[in-house]
Amino acid sequence: VRGALLFLAPPRPYVVHIADGYPIEKDSSFFAELRILLVEKALRCVTDEILVLNPEDYAFAKRFKLFSNKLYGFPGLGLDLSAYHPASTEEKREARYTLGIPESAFVLIYMADFTAHANQAMLLQAMRFLPHDICLYLPGEGPLLESCREKAEALGVLPKVSFPGIQRDWSLCCHAADVAVSAALQESPSLPLAAALASGLP
């Protein structure tokens, strides 16, 4: 998007760029860092403000002045842990009623967008080998949602898998579950998994 703004005639919009990890490491080669720097420098003229989520990115953006106006640093993303706690029997019952989950089921939960990276398809394959009373709850949306739904149907596990769409209340979802699972091919610090752990889920 910022690249397209380079070719936009004035007046252009005011641009705030959120940098969630410049792709540089301590052992990055000079040429790898130079490539990133040249791109960011070229986009500086259309980047009014930068918001970064860690000290390394802040230092990098400040050192090379990758912004036109202001640079802001935030202490990353996180959870309000006061909103999460292990569910009581009654809370679990109410959560399952609210979400339409059978009270007697053993529920696995994986909160993630439906992308190739999230790899929900692997969990659908695994469901073929699990007992019939184990259910898989997959809140979220994304480009692969429909293909995952079709895959579940083709594998014959659709009755044991729930695709409820986006669920904003993670605490409610965790209260309804017995175990949190993940099939991500690569995982940065995961807020949904942190929410599950804060809710006492293994």
Short note summarizing the structure:
The chain is an alpha/beta fold.
Rg for CA atoms:
22 Å
Q: Report the count of strand segments.
A: 7
Strand order of the largest sheet: 6-5-4-7
The structural class is alpha/beta
Question: Segments where pLDDT lies below 50 for 5+ residues?
Answer: none
Strand portion, in percent?
A: 5-15%
Mean pLDDT: 89
Helix-strand pattern = HEHEHEHEHEHEHEH
What is the straight-line distance between the termini? 40 Å
Major sheet size, sense and barrel closure: 4 strands, parallel
Helix content: 25-40%
Shape: elongated
Counting DSSP H or I runs of 4 or more residues, the number of helices is 8
Layout of secondary structure:
Layout: H1 2-5, E1 16-19, H2 30-43, E2 49-52, H3 55-63, E3 70-73, H4 89-99, E4 106-109, H5 120-127, E5 134-137, H6 145-155, E6 161-162, H7 170-176, E7 179-180, H8 191-198
Parallel strand pairs: 1-2, 2-3, 4-5, 4-7, 5-6
Helix pairs in contact: 4-7, 5-6
Can you tell me about this structure?
By secondary structure, this protein is of the alpha/beta class. Helix content is 36%, strand content 12%. The chain has helices at residues 2-5, 30-43, 55-63, 89-99, 120-127, 145-155, 170-176, 191-198; strands at 16-19, 49-52, 70-73, 106-109, 134-137, 161-162, 179-180. Helix 4 (89-99) crosses helix 7 and helix 5 (120-127) runs parallel beside helix 6. The longest helix is centred in the N-terminal third of the chain and has 14 residues, at 30-43. The protein is elongated and about 60 Å long. The two termini are 40 Å apart. The mean pLDDT is 89.
List keywords for this structure.
single chain, 202 residues, alpha/beta, four-stranded parallel sheet, three-stranded parallel sheet, 8 helices, 7 strands, 12% strand, elongated
